[in-house]
Design a protein that fits this description.
Blueprint: E1 10-17, E2 21-27, E3 33-34, E4 39-44, E5 49-53, E6 58-59, E7 64-69, E8 78-81, E9 94-99, E10 105-111, E11 137-139, E12 154-156, E13 170-176, E14 182-189, E15 194-200, E16 208-213, E17 220-224, E18 235-239, E19 244-252, E20 260-268, E21 275-280, E22 283-284, E23 288-297, E24 304-307, E25 312-321, E26 324-331, E27 338-345, E28 351-360, E29 367-373, E30 378-383, E31 389-390, E32 395-400, E33 403-408, E34 413-414, E35 419-423, E36 435-437, E37 450-455, E38 461-467, E39 496-499, E40 514-517, E41 531-533, E42 540-541, E43 545-549, E44 551-553, E45 560-565, E46 572-574, E47 579-583, E48 588-597, E49 603-613, E50 617-623, E51 626-628, E52 631-641, E53 647-657, E54 665-675, E55 679-689, E56 699-707, E57 713-722, E58 729-732
Parallel strand pairs: 7-8, 22-28, 35-36, 42-49, 51-57
Antiparallel strand pairs: 1-2, 1-11, 2-7, 3-6, 4-5, 4-9, 9-10, 11-12, 13-20, 14-19, 15-18, 15-20, 16-17, 16-19, 21-23, 23-26, 24-27, 25-26, 27-28, 29-30, 29-39, 30-35, 31-34, 32-33, 32-37, 37-38, 39-40, 41-44, 43-47, 45-48, 46-47, 48-49, 50-52, 52-55, 53-54, 53-56, 55-58, 56-57
């Protein structure tokens, strides 16, 4: 019994329901399919139905064919149906039928509320896919899976004549063979849409360096590299600047991975509104500047933040990850007590609101806990304001290792700028204008965690501090009217105290306090305020090694540095030690904001601009600019490398026009020219183009020089030669 002939594995893979309607066919089988005489029938529910025959075309295995209504230039993967109207609409239901040359159904799809029956030879089951929303297409997954069900199709970003991207991410599997292998992925992008371009499942030893080019394959938009470790590879979130095609190139620059592989993914990043849920701290006083941590979801770079009060401003927003952001918040002295809403806005305009997110408390006054000593059990208060404060009815609440007591303060007052020492009952003495002896024992001790709160006569909190010890960490809560955020300071030891800085800075942060020499009754001995210092950062050449040390003064070393805003060029890193190091592979001006933290949690930030310049310069002279075969074309290549590192120039000759099929690119001197640092070189290139009578149309030779490391185009020139040609010889002198 003879086996039946296998059905062609050609599917309707994607449909564009926009102003210009189009559909894409995909051959997922193992054999080429002749589409001559095949028919497409397209219609919208309750409206026009159009049927048209396909022209002569061979669809090879795993290739795509896009069919566009209207006019245009046909290509190897697209045909324009001049005069044919595909009657789909962006908001209406419809269907599409594919028939072979015998009229047998090959594939079928319907969407919306369409009830169009499938043709003989096909089936359809399940719920129809929804009408895609504006700007999106209707298509299958990246593999072109076909189960004759409605859920085979879904909304996706347009990818004419290329693999589809489903919401979870379409994959393209490649092999690294041999080392140095280059692979390309075509990306059909939509202006303003964010894309996640990522390499993963990478074999050990392979260094997958990724570069995105414009449609010409020459103009590099960015590059990302990796360190050669196993698993993940370069990844970049990218917003398409314009509609159109882009080219993503992957190169294995590592010594390993000859027989390995990797997956390349280009995924549409869903646009979702930021959703804040909590703030830490959530209480703030007037005239305070401090960082606040926001948790939630949907946070992406470019996030902005506002509060409902104009007296509370967000000076900087740093997105840590999708669920965490840190905002530098400043409240003015006029900030009104009460609850204030938080509004977040993403770069695409999507907004998220958290009502009553921040509580502003009334000004707590000017008296602060300035210093304390857990060995001698005393607390120093300081009046940082300009008026005398009556302490009648005030008290301090002290806790040590879990136990807590309240010690009332005897009737006393503290003048502007004055200090007042409060001793516990274990220290004998007589009360005076600068010292008071309380009736309670504090119970502190060296190495024991604890806390101290200052409350007024109405029970409202005026100040608070807690610290960690060798026995554990204090989790004591600040009293109503005060706040606390950030890590606790470490408890003092020996004859050192825990105190604020010289100016008694109070931001309700653990970093306000540090261990220092005891100075009861006088200004503290904490170091000068922390300040970041960047010096002069000179511009760097692309491809050269960059090494620059950031500096800080004041505070308590060691310092830790972080990039708080902006993005470093590919190839450059910032270490926690403040060292900008690497080889920049991306041109441009890179504005950065860098923050420095000291050992006590104090921080400062500043801005600088990293300029990456193109070191290479070149020119191409072509004689003649136009010729008729047979002819000789002379090229003069002038290259200059003022940088401090060796540069490699990629030289390429491309022929367009009536070049023989499959022969379009010729390499010159193995594609590269090497220039030592500080050198200017001249090359002469001769192209002998013989007579070829069988071709009758002209050819344009395009000569380009580009930086092999970054892909940046340096210079180009062209020569037009009449009639087809065969390139027989090229040489460098």
């Amino acid at each position: 019994m003879a086996c039946p002939e296998p059905q062609p594995r050609v599917v309707i893979n994607e449909m564009g329901l926009g102003v210009l309607d189009w559909l894409e066919l995909y051959n997922g089988g193992g054999d080429a399919v002749d589409l001559t005489g095949w028919t497409v029938r397209a219609g919208r529910s309750g409206g026009m139905v159009t049927e048209f025959d396909l022209p002569s075309f061979i669809l090879y295995p795993h290739h795509f064919l896009a069919l566009f209504e209207g006019s245009g230039e046909d290509g190897v993967d697209r045909i324009f149906l001049n005069g044919t109207n595909i009657p789909w609409t962006t908001s209406g239901a419809g269907h599409c039928v594919l028939l072979d040359d015998s009229g047998t159904g090959i594939d079928f799809c319907r969407w919306g509320d369409s009830t169009e029956p499938p043709p003989a030879g096909t089936t359809w089951s399940g719920i129809n896919p929804d009408i895609p929303y504006e700007g999106m297409n209707l298509g299958r997954d990246s593999a072109g899976s076909d189960t004759d069900q409605g859920d085979d199709f879904g909304s996706l970003a347009p990818t004419a004549a290329g693999p589809n991207w489903e919401p979870g991410g379409g994959l393209n599997h490649h092999s690294f063979y041999p080392a140095g292998d280059r692979d390309w992925l075509r990306v059909q992008a939509q202006a303003g849409q964010r894309y996640d371009l990522e390499v993963f499942n990478r074999c050990s030893g392979a260094e997958a360096n990724m570069t995105l080019y414009a449609a010409d394959g020459i103009t590099a938009l960015f590059s990302e590299g990796c360190d050669g470790s196993f698993g993940s590879g370069p990844r970049r979130a990218w917003v398409a600047p314009a509609d159109g095609q882009y080219l993503l190139r992957l190169v294995n620059d590592g010594p390993g991975g000859d027989y390995g592989s990797y997956d390349l993914q280009a995924t549409v990043i869903p646009i979702s509104a930021p959703s804040p849920t909590t703030l830490t701290p959530a209480v703030l006083g007037p005239d305070v500047c401090c960082p606040i941590t926001i948790t939630g979801d949907g946070f992406v770079p470019g996030l902005s933040a506002w509060f409902s009060s104009g007296e509370i401003t967000c000076e900087r927003v740093e997105v840590v990850d999708r669920s965490t952001a840190v905002v530098l918040v400043r409240s003015s002295a006029a900030a009104a007590p009460g609850s204030h809403d938080l509004l977040l806005r993403g770069p695409d305009g999507a907004e998220g609101l958290l009502p009553g997110a921040l509580q502003v408390v009334a000004n707590r006054g000017s008296v602060v806990i300035n210093e304390l000593n857990t060995l001698e059990n005393w607390v120093e208060l300081r009046n940082t304001g300009g008026e005398t404060v009556d302490l009648s009815g005030w008290a301090i609440r002290v806790a040590a290792g879990g136990g807590a007591v309240t010690a009332p303060i005897p009737s006393a007052s503290i003048g502007p700028g004055a200090f007042l020492i409060l001793h516990d009952s274990g220290t004998p003495g007589e009360n005076g204008p600068a010292e008071l002896y309380l009736d309670q024992y504090f119970g502190w001790g060296v190495g024991i965690y604890g806390s101290c709160a200052l409350v007024d006569s109405g029970g409202e909190g005026r100040d608070f501090v807690r610290w960690d010890g060798v026995t554990g960490s204090s989790l004591d809560r600040p009293p109503q009217g005060t706040g606390w955020y950030g890590p606790n300071p470490a408890g003092e030891s020996g004859y050192f105290s825990l105190g604020r800085d010289l100016g008694s800075t109070d931001t309700d942060a653990g970093g306000d306090f540090s261990a220092q020499e005891s100075s009861p009754g006088s200004a503290n001995t904490a170091p000068a305020p922390l300040e970041a210092y960047f010096g002069l950062l000179e511009p760097s050449w692309i491809g050269d090694e960059l090494s620059f040390q950031l500096e800080a003064t004041g505070g308590e070393p060691p310092y830790r540095w972080f990039l708080s805003r902006g993005r470093l060029p590919s190839g450059v890193t910032l270490s926690e030690a403040g060292h900008l190091l690497g080889t920049a592979m991306s041109l441009g001006s890179w504005p950065l904001e860098v923050s420095v933290y000291d050992a006590a949690g104090r921080w400062d930030s500043g801005e600088l601009v990293l300029e990456i310049l193109q070191a290479l310069s070149s020119s191409i002279g072509v004689q003649p600019g136009a010729a008729i075969f047979p002819c000789t074309v002379e090229l003069d290549l002038n290259l200059s490398n003022p940088g401090s590192a060796e540069a490699v120039v990629a030289a390429r000759l491309t022929a367009t026009g009536a070049a023989p099929e499959g022969i379009t690119t010729y390499d010159l001197a193995d594609s590269t020219l090497v220039l030592p640092p500080g050198q200017t070189s001249h090359f002469n290139l001769t192209l002998d183009i013989p007579d070829d009578e069988q071709f009758t149309t002209g050819v344009i030779f395009q000569f380009t020089l580009s930086d092999a490391a970054s892909g940046v185009l340096l210079s180009s020139a062209q020569c037009q030669v009449q009639n087809r040609y065969q390139l027989q010889h090229h040489s460098l002198h």
